[in-house]
Write a structure and sequence with these properties.
151 residues, Alpha-Beta Plaits, 8 helices, globular, metal ion binding
Length: 151
């Protein structure tokens, strides 16, 4: 059974730099998701570290934090029926090289985990989206502390 929920989306620096923000958000809106908050942010290191705290012991954590604090990101809250699953289906696999060609990462992505690992840097995969309701519940207040869920 479907239900209305909210999810956090970050258009990462590579998506902003490549001027893909409008295209990415339009694809999400076309799936009947509503943007209920939107902001251009220059995240601070501690903010990104808190967001990705579950990865702090992984080798990519430092490069990921550096990547996300180096340039602006677009932070957005999307709402709609099954927003989390719908968003993740539209954006595709974390690794653009493995993403279905119909997805945002599959169509627009130009990086791969193998290449990022070989170069010792963060994966440039355009977009972050909450993985599940628990992550959304933690991430949305972190990026939008005053955001109130729609009734």
């Amino acid at each position: 059974m479907s239900h209305s929920e909210r999810t956090l989306v970050l258009v990462k620096p590579d998506g902003v730099q490549r001027q893909l923000v409008g295209q990415i958000l339009a694809r999400l809106e076309a799936a009947n998701l509503s943007i209920t908050a939107l902001e251009l942010r220059y995240p601070e290191q501690r903010h990104v570290e808190q967001h990705y705290q579950e990865h702090q012991d992984k080798p990519f954590f430092g490069p990921l934090v550096e990547y996300l604090t180096d340039s602006p990101v677009i932070a957005a809250v999307l709402a709609g029926e099954d927003a989390i699953h719908t968003t993740r289906r539209i954006i595709g696999d974390t690794d653009p090289a493995n993403a279905d060609s119909e997805t945002i990462r599959g169509e627009l992505g130009v990086d791969s985990m193998d290449q990022a690992d070989d170069e010792g840097r963060a994966l440039r995969n355009l977009i972050h989206a909450s993985a599940d309701p628990e992550d959304a519940g933690r991430e949305i207040p972190l990026w939008f502390p005053d955001h109130e869920p729609a009734e």
